[in-house]
């Protein structure tokens, strides 16, 4: 009985770890992959311009570019008047725009109201650490 309880505890811990936002995908470490965590929607312009410049510099070595938006600024994400210029800039540039689920919950933002081009990660900080484990270069603004 003790062995069964131990195995159940190990299984539950493993499953809980997966649900905490562990990146399930392993990215191509031969490419230059980037991650930015920002707390300011207007910074998206500079971030997207930097991504574009890196893509030019890296050429075929340019891989993924993920941006997670967290903090109170997630309240702006449902406003298309604010977001549309950034969404247009990010389009076709291999930039993945994501919202932090913790921030959405904390500031009462309905994730279903986000633009369809955006994704949601449960925990933006954990997501960033997991990308770093996969070799992503990262910065927090």
From TrEMBL:
InterPro entries: DsrEFH-like (IPR027396)
Domain of life the protein comes from: Bacteria
SUPFAM superfamilies assigned to the protein according to its UniProt record, in alphabetical order: DsrEFH-like
Listed name of the protein: Sulfur reduction protein DsrE
Organism encoding this protein: Flagellimonas pelagia
